[in-house]
Design goal:
Length: 327
């Protein structure tokens, strides 16, 4: 009996062992229940998108020059920065495009002009050379929808014959760029070309522009040639559309630099579709003649994936009213 009072029956320890391990585990783990700080920050996707939007808007555009892109060096500092003009800056050695950016920004004190003691007067391009460089850029924009290439560009396209033979501008393209621009010219919004007037242009230039501008070359055959007799009827609306554009006055609404992006959204890649349409609508002999006469650069390559022209309409009009050559 005495032993019985001092020792519980044999089932007690077993019941305690089966019942309490979980309780013991929780009891012993009280000191470990605090959550560690892993330093992980969970972002708000919607708010993050708003924060990124302006960066994306800027980076998505092919044009745009920042004040950090330009060279603000000058031969001499102006007496009154607040009154300095474009001509003053150019005469002091600042490149034309750089000066336009700086003045457009409001002569910012955060990016002041900087005196360059190493600059020499004889290194500053003459006004005549600057004018020729601006014309070189303008000609390329109107006829090829691009700026001349810079020194750092791997591609070295051929100098247009008109610039080389008629205008005497036979130097490498980067020479004309570097006279007026210290950054990649593609950053400088080319839409300025749209606002140039032709009243003071020489007759040779006007005659050359009359031969054609960017965006119209593959429309040209439809305004100059009759299609072959067996053109499928379902292509006739596309032919009429192309002919209407070819015969309409050249327009900034068609020019690649300034046309509405919806033109491509609704009609596909114009050049690739027109190439297919040329192959469908003209004979081999006609196309070879077009190439020989430089109406088109080369015989088009069939682009199977570009079949939007099958839905082009003969009443469609993309020419708009923004004439390049105003009367």
């Amino acid at each position: 009996m005495q032993s019985s009072s001092h020792h519980p029956d044999n089932t007690q320890p077993l019941r305690w062992f089966k019942k309490d391990p979980i309780e013991m585990a929780f009891t012993s783990a009280v000191a470990m229940t605090g959550v560690p700080n892993f330093g992980i920050v969970h972002i708000n996707p919607a708010e993050t998108a708003k924060a990124f939007q302006s960066y994306l808007d800027t980076a998505s555009k092919l044009t745009g020059v920042s004040l950090d892109d330009i060279d603000r060096s000058v031969l001499r500092m102006p007496n009154e920065v607040s009154k300095v003009t474009l001509a003053d800056l150019i005469n002091s050695g600042m490149k034309l495009f750089d000066a336009v950016v700086w003045l457009t920004a409001g002569r910012p004190s955060t990016h002041p002009l900087m005196h360059d003691p190493g600059m020499k007067k004889e290194d500053i391009p003459s006004m005549h050379d600057i004018a020729r460089s601006v014309f070189y850029c303008y000609f390329m924009l109107v006829t090829q929808a691009r700026y001349p290439v810079s020194r750092n560009t791997a591609e070295k396209p051929k100098i247009p014959n008109f610039l080389k033979t008629i205008m005497g501008m036979d130097k490498d393209q980067h020479v004309y760029v570097e006279r007026i621009c210290s950054f990649e010219p593609q950053k400088f919004d080319p839409a300025w070309a749209r606002h140039v007037t032709f009243e003071g242009f020489g007759q040779e230039v006007l005659s050359r522009f009359g031969l054609g501008v960017a965006g119209y070359r593959l429309f040209g055959p439809f305004g100059l040639y009759r299609t072959k007799d067996d053109v499928p009827r379902d292509l006739l609306p596309a032919v009429a559309f192309a002919r209407n554009v070819a015969k309409a006055p050249a327009s900034w609404d068609v020019h690649p630099l300034t046309r509405n992006p919806n033109i491509l959204t609704n009609r596909g890649n114009l050049n690739k579709n027109l190439g297919n349409l040329i192959l469908d609508c003209f004979t081999t002999e006609q196309i070879e003649e077009m190439v020989k006469a430089k109406i088109i650069f080369a015989v088009p390559t069939r682009e199977i994936a570009h079949r939007n022209y099958l839905q082009w309409s003969d009443v469609d009009d993309i020419s708009g009213s923004a004439r390049i050559f105003r009367a």
